[in-house]
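PROTEIN SPECIFICATION:
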Amino acid sequence: MPTLLAVPRLRLVTDVSPGDWVAKGVGPLGSGVGSLLPGGFEAYVRILHPAVSRDGMPVRWDSVATWSGATAHPRAQFEAIARPRRGADRQLAPFDQRPPVGRLPEPLLAALCDVLTTHTRMPDRCWFCVWDGYGWISGPTPLSVLGDAPPFPPAFGLAAQSSPRVRLPERAYLLFDGPLGAASDVGWWLNGDLVIPQSPNLFWPDDRAWCVATEIDLDSTFVGGSAALTAAVLKDVRFEAWPSELTDPVSASSDEINH
């Protein structure tokens, strides 16, 4: 039986077989988009995590490319486009912080769930994978945001320490179930507040109509699904997104145009 958590709407499950199809459908780590998402979907799309300006506002990658003289394209990598070219605009860079790695910012996660819910028959029955290497999962670690607070216990209780994992090449994940809206519930909760938010690293509905991957080392989120779903993401102004292919490389050195 699933274990009820303090985290609203999410349950840690001990039967991880719902993740078998993902584990069987991905390639070895480092083999491109196909190492993040299973094959077989009609189309794939890449959502870029925005950089952050000095006043805390999101900054699109194409704005950074305009500043640096680089080229925005489907396989662009942030480190490559953030390097000013000779003769480029020497004004101050439009960003202060690079895009978050391994985490889709909450406003974009909420926006993505808005789109995803209309492309599955089962938005109330979804599966969520969370990488088991986050420190707040295993505890204890001081919460620096709380100053002198004592170390906190494991986020999902001691049961999570021995719970079965969904295992992909070089990655292991705790598995949860809940409604699609629970995607925003992942993280460390304290006294009813989400202190350390974390988007799921993988999630999909029970009908497998789509799958979303936010790899722990990447600053982009990838979605596989129907052509209609990927088209909806591409035309939604809330995202900076590009069409993607399973064979697309995803490493920081794979930007063949801007390198």
Q: What stands out?
A: The mean pLDDT is 89. The chain has seven helices and 14 strands. The chain has one domain: 3-49+100-244.
